[in-house]
Amino acid sequence: MSKKIIAAKDLVKWYGKDVLALNKVSFEVDDGDFFVIIGPSGCGKSTLLKVMAGILDYEGELYIKGENMRDVPAYKRDVSLMLETYAVFPHMNVFDNIAFGLRMLGKDKAEIEHDVKEAIDLVGLSGLEKRSPLELSGGQRQRVALARSLVIKPSVLLLDEPLSHVDYILQRKLMEDFKTLHTKLGQTFILTTHVQEHALTLADTMVVMNTGVIEQMGTPDEIYCKPTTVFAARFVGDISLFPGEVTSKEDREYFVKTEFGELKALAPNETELVGKKLAYGIRPEFVKIGDEARSCENKYKAKFVGHYYFGNLVECVFEVKGGVTIRATVPPETAINLRLGETYAVGWHPEDAIMLEKPSVIEGLDIEGVIYGK
Amino acid sequence: MSMKVGDMLARIYIVIIILVIYAPMIFLILLSFNTSARISFPMEGFTLDWYIGELKGYEYVSYIPVIHHWQFWESLKNSIYVSIAAGIITCLLVTTTALALRHRVFGRDFLFYLLLLGFIVPGVLLGLGNLLLYRMLDLEITFWNMVFVDVVFAVPFGLILMMARFDPDLMMYEQAASVLKASPVSIFRKVTLPLIRWEVLSAGILGFLLSWGELIRSFYVMRGVGTVSTYIYMQITMNPVTTKWFAAGTIIALVSFAALAVLGYLLSR
Amino acid sequence: MVRYTNYLLLLPGIITCGFYLVAPLVIMLMISFYKPVYPVYEPGFTPVNYINFLTSPQAPTILINTFSTTLLAAVISLILGYPFAYFLTFKIKSQKMKTYLISLLMAPFLIDWTTKSVAWIAILGESGLLNSTLISMKAIKEPLQFLFRRETLYIIWVQTNLLFMIFPIHLALNRVAPDLINAAKVLKAPPHRVFYDIIFKLSLPGVICGFIFVFVSTLGDYATPMLWAGGIQVLGLSVSSYAGNFLWPQASALGIILLVIALVVLYILLKVVNIKKLFYE
Lengths: 374, 269, 281
Fold this sequence. Notes:
The complex is a heterotrimer. Chain A is of the alpha+beta class. Chain A has eleven helices and 20 strands. In chain A, strands 6-7-8-3-9-10 form a six-stranded mixed beta sheet, sandwiched between helices. In chain B, helix 3 packs antiparallel against helix 8 and helix 3 crosses helix 9. Chain B is mainly α. Chain B has a single domain, classed as MetI-like fold, CATH 1.10.3720. Chain C is built from 13 helices and no strands. Chain C starts with a helix and ends with a helix. Classes of the chains: A alpha+beta, B mainly alpha, C mainly alpha. The interface between B and C is large, with 92 and 90 residues.
């Protein structure tokens, strides 16, 4: 049973009188975890990090390493934060920037020399010690910001959207670096992003946030395969969603009436769902086309209307009765045989479908609203 | 809790400093209504005599009520013309120069320091130098001397103001406009100018204010009765100091306040 | 084409500067080397004016007075003005209030110079506010002499120029990105280190700017020493006395010395901090 290094209960944060950034957020972080917070812009993830770092006031309870952080200022917390804007000090060179934290902690000169050099090598900035930040590229500045956060060896390293202003190749490299660092240093990493791939790749535990609340928390596998709300299902991984109502149940199969037909799905557990309104979802990778679709219990004729090419996979868009679209992900070999405007059989197995009762953790939202995106 | 105390102290400090800066002006206005001619505190009585009293015809300048003191009004008129002209010209020069200096023009640094020179040169030199220049060229000191002596001093200050407050995205907006096929004149009128409106306005106000109460420079380029500052300065060196001068000062304050209000209103449209 | 417009835009500024700023200084420089023959001067080239002054017995006193009073006035302005600028930037939250306060500071400029200083008599004079209050509180028996002494200079100078110290500092402080402060806090800097290492150091261009302004502003002031400080001997006063007697070469020479002093101090200060940072970035 791993220790909880961070425990938060009912965190509330108002900006002024109108903006509620954190709405009773509660969660716990295991020691040594790679914890990823994911959510759309404005959902409160940056605010959450800043509250944990100690630069924002809050209501509620926050414990780090078992100590209550109420009235504990940032410089007394064993936490480090890398800001989204990097905020590298413009009036100090690279060395002094990285050495800053150590100097504030009162370490002696020799120790500082050694640690800073180690950090510089670690992030690949060797030779740039004397440079002014104004002469560095964005990526180099980011590495300075990263190095100076790491060098003070905090128990928890917070990273605010470190992958957001960076090109794809660098994103991949950074993700590898983060993973390696995390394994090597053993500290708890908490990272925010709005890109689900980052979360799925990096996280030991992840949290999906939405306008100041936590939609779902769990391992990437749990959140991807077993989302608990429509929002979570939509935000993490692609999914085709249809609003529907459960009409009847047979054995362990439910029949869900949707706009274009009656779909079958397996009951996830023993709860009684007949009569309930819910969202029926199927992830594109489970949707089969043509011959493969014939063996599926959910089978429809659909018109091929478009596709998105991802190199290794193609996401094909099909239209069924009523203008509803279903997406299927297939290898390029399969996609190449499809002709626009032609009708094909698409289908999937009931056990691959997801049924979601709850639109979102936020009260007062309806299923259609969350499905079609607000 | 400790933050609240810090905030309180900050506010108190601000108030104290403002009081210290306003103290002379407050007393000036207050004591202009004093019945006693002697400058003293507390006030003996209340009277408007120093403003609109009767002229007996034999007093020293220091006892003539303001309303009858025609040289004073003459100098006040001069001040208004000079300061408003200085304000407008400063405004124009600062705007054009600041906009030009944004780009990497050849000799940008040199030009910048040259313009800054006006800031560094002690006022006395500016005034005296201008006087000597005109004597050498055998020209008479004109109204424009008075204006430009002030302009040359206000422009560096206004430049610093404007450039420090320029929106770094301004060039970006201008480029966006030119991509949308706007002509340079249109870009200036519809994009640049609205965005720097406030800075332009403050440059104008700055020019006005720095010129209004100025004495040191203006002294040497006096024409006629001179500006209000130089006139009163000359009078006070030769006449006793009485309450009458407070009345004069209050009028001066009122007039400039009104001029500023009008200037601000006009420029903000 | 853009280049040409730029040069065109710069032209008015350069012409104005050239004629009303550079030319006068050049003329002054020229005249300072003229022969000081009564009644006015005779064209020529002689360093006699400089030598006469620098070797005169009053020169050391004058120079020391000039330096000490103006530098001290600038330092006092800095000490009083920095906290104001700091509180204005960081403790006053609403932008409206900030603008309002700054414009409040400008109001004393609405009055002409002379009557403004005359008003000080009402406060510092023998029958002024301070003395009257102190006497009525029985703290002193005889009125104290606040005016017509060296210290009056500081009071008047600081009060007049405080705005010009506050404003550049406020501008510089305003440009300190909040995230820099956040970063420092998170890097374990206690509040006083956050202030010193980050805020103060980044505000230095503004501090230098304000310091230079106040210093230069007081450097050439002849009126205040003459009227209110009992004619204390400072260089500005010397310049004006010579000028008042139409002794142009001597006045010019002293004026140039004044300018040299200003430039030297400016140079030293600029070595400390690069002012361009305040404007270009």
